[in-house]
């Protein structure tokens, strides 16, 4: 009995250690992100600036008004995408699933692009009322409307099946794609440039006031998704099996859907499309520490935050004084890293 | 006691189950037999609450199963199904411990851990606990799932509360040795006090382990009773259109003897 308990204790404690390691790495990345950029700030100076709120040096302004909100946004968006990706992969019981499947990204894109293209004509009162907030709000609304449509289409009575969700998602995504195409067609050159950049993603130009609502929503959703870890584990055994173990499967799927929609929606509303994070982060974490969501969920949250903050450091320093779209960087770092992980796993399994 | 009273299940125009009755007492192993398409799995699923009944009702402990909440129900009845496709590499240990979810509110964690160890040891799987489920053979997967449902029922068994295990074709992907092993386990669990209901294809297995047999044909219960009362030559001829009888030698479990000309008019 004793030998048995010892032989499986390491696995869990290693996972805990790994989470602590991720947390430390996350802090290091945070400090690095604050210190690097167009204006170089030494670490000693950085600590001093962070301790003194009221001061009006240039460095102080750079940290408090530009880098800190941007870092927080990067971390929150990365964390939100990581958690949503893990939840979607669990709900679809497929490690290749992605929040885009349920129309979040296409909905947000439709909302944002409609606001950009029709901002001067059809939606002028909307853009006048909300000013610089118009595009994020438009994107968030677009995401909610499209997700609500897919949700409604796939829930018939007391049913909420994954196959109907998938099919409704594919159909609605296709329709939204066509609408985006039409909007792109009628856009002016300037609008076209805006919407192209929106769809490549950017973390630039967001103040504290602008990001606060998103931060709150993402944090709440991450906590709620993490709390669903145990039933999600059981759900991976199969829907019937989860039911037999007393899990309310329909409620679980609906909750995962709603939290993911809110979480990813409020993330991409501010940043535009940042692909790949939601897919790749949970995947990498699963390769490292297994599919148990009690560890996978926090690891995906931390991993997402780290990946996106790192990507943002590169995005804003590589081609100073201008900036790379962050979506490019996440795919450029994430892709090769993922491939290496994948090849290593195959080798260790002996395929 | 589980009581299925006059249950009928219709899907679209098809009547899968017609006015079926069944009772299952604690401590008993009842086997559901019947040809393909007779409604065996439908009967089992309607007892687990997986499919809605068109008519009739199912009672656990004199209470309609809709009266229980999901976890309460899961503490009392476990289900072992045939197919487990799981692309996620949970370890054997993690799979078995998923049954802790049912009891986490009412039982301390250390007790649950002891239960999962007991279940794993009972199935002789302690050398596999850290192996990913995805890398196991079909037979091993089935045994892991058996350990999981056993672990789900162990708290009730230990406290001598009524509990039930419903098994859908547990031996389908197993070799001969493991077929008998799994049925012996089902027998042991029944002896410990659980009511066990199993859908089985193999008549000899049913005759070897069952207390009672329910024979289905075209969605109707056509015979119920002790194995030697149900598995008569006349009944087998009527239900399976085959001339056969159960052979029992001293020192062996029953086997099926099929007459040579049995298939001639098929």
TrEMBL record, chain A:
UniProt-annotated location(s): Cell membrane
Pfam families, per database record: FecCD
Transmembrane segments: 68-88, 100-118, 130-151, 163-187, 207-226, 256-283, 295-314, 326-346
Primary subcellular site in the record, as a coarse category: membrane
Domain of life: Bacteria
Keyword RNA-binding assigned: no
Record carries keyword Transmembrane: yes
Membrane topology: Multi-pass membrane protein
CDD domains the record matches: TM_ABC_iron-siderophores_like
Keywords assigned by UniProt, alphabetized: Cell membrane, Membrane, Transmembrane, Transmembrane helix, Transport
Gene3D superfamilies in UniProt: ABC transporter involved in vitamin B12 uptake, BtuC
Similarity-based family: Belongs to the binding-protein-dependent transport system permease family. FecCD subfamily.
Protein name (database record): Iron complex transport system permease protein
UniProt source species: Pseudoalteromonas aurantia 208
UniProt lineage: Bacteria, Pseudomonadati, Pseudomonadota, Gammaproteobacteria, Alteromonadales
From TrEMBL, chain B:
Gene3D superfamilies per record: P-loop containing nucleotide triphosphate hydrolases
Gene Ontology molecular-function annotations: ATP binding
Alphabetized CDD domains for the sequence: ABC_Iron-Siderophores_B12_Hemin
Domain ABC transporter positions: 2-243
Pfam families noted in UniProt: ABC_tran
Keywords of the record: ATP-binding, Nucleotide-binding, Translocase, Transport
InterPro entries per record: AAA+_ATPase (IPR003593), ABC_transporter-like_ATP-bd (IPR003439), ABC_transporter-like_CS (IPR017871), P-loop_NTPase (IPR027417)
Domain of life, per lineage: Bacteria
PROSITE patterns linked: ABC_TRANSPORTER_1, ABC_TRANSPORTER_2
Function per UniProt: Part of the ABC transporter complex HmuTUV involved in hemin import. Responsible for energy coupling to the transport system.
Protein name, as recorded: Iron complex transport system ATP-binding protein
């Amino acid at each position: 009995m004793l030998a048995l308990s010892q032989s499986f204790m390491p696995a869990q404690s290693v996972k805990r250690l790994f989470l602590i390691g991720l947390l430390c790495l996350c802090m290091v990345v945070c400090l690095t992100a604050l210190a690097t950029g167009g204006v170089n700030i030494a670490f000693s100076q950085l600590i001093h600036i962070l301790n003194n709120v009221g001061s009006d040096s240039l460095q102080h302004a750079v940290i408090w008004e530009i880098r800190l909100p941007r870092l927080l946004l990067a971390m929150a968006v990365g964390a939100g995408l990581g958690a949503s990706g893990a939840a979607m992969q669990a709900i679809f019981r497929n490690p290749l699933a992605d929040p885009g499947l349920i129309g979040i990204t296409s909905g947000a894109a439709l909302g944002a692009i409609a606001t950009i293209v029709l901002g001067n004509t059809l939606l002028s009162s909307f853009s006048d009322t909300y000013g610089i907030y118009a595009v994020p709000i438009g994107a968030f609304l677009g995401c909610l409307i499209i997700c609500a449509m897919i949700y409604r289409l796939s829930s018939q009575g007391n049913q909420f099946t994954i196959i109907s969700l998938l099919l409704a998602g594919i159909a609605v995504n296709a329709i939204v794609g066509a609408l985006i195409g039409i909007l792109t067609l009628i856009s002016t050159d300037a609008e076209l440039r805006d919407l192209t950049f929106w769809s490549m993603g950017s973390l630039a130009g967001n103040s504290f006031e602008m990001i606060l609502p998103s931060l709150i929503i993402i944090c709440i959703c991450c906590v709620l998704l993490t709390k669903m870890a145990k039933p999600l584990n059981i759900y991976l055994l199969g829907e019937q099996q989860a039911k037999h173990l007393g899990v309310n499967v329909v409620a679980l799927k609906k909750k995962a859907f709603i939290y993911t929609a809110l979480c990813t929606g409020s993330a991409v509303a501010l940043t535009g499309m940042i692909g790949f994070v939601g897919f790749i982060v949970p995947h990498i974490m699963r390769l490292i520490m297994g599919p148990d969501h009690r560890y996978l969920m926090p690891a995906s949250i931390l991993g997402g935050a780290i990946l996106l903050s790192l990507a943002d450091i590169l995005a804003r320093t590589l081609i100073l004084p201008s900036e790379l779209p962050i979506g490019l960087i996440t795919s450029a770092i994430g892709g090769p890293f993922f491939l290496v992980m994948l090849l290593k796993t195959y080798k260790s399994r002996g395929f | 006691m589980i009581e299925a009273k006059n249950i009928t299940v219709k899907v679209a125009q098809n009547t899968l189950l017609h006015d079926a009755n069944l009772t299952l007492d604690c401590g008993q192993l009842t086997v559901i037999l019947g040809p393909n398409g007779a409604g065996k799995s439908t009967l089992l699923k309607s007892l687990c609450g997986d499919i809605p009944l068109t008519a009739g009702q199912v009672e656990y402990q004199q209470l309609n199963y809709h009266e229980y909440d999901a976890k309460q129900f899961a503490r009392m009845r476990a289900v072992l199904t045939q197919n487990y496709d799981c692309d996620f590499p949970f370890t054997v240990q993690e799979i078995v411990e998923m049954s802790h979810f049912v009891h986490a509110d009412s039982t301390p964690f250390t007790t649950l851990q002891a239960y999962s160890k007991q279940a794993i040891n009972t199935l002789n799987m302690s050398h596999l606990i850290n192996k990913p489920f995805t890398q196991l053979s079909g037979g091993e997967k089935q045994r892991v799932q058996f350990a999981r449902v056993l672990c789900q029922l162990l708290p009730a068994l230990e406290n001598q509360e009524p509990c039930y295990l419903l098994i859908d074709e547990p031996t389908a992907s197993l070799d001969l040795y493991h077929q008998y092993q799994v049925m012996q386990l089902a027998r042991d669990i029944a002896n410990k006090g659980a009511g066990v209901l199993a859908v089985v294809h193999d008549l000899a297995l049913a005759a070897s382990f069952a207390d009672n047999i329910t024979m289905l044909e075209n969605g109707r219960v056509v015979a119920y009773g002790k194995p030697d009362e149900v598995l008569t030559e006349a009944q087998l001829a009527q239900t399976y259109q085959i001339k056969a009888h159960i052979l029992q030698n001293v020192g062996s479990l029953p086997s099926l003897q099929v007459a040579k000309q049995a298939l001639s008019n098929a």
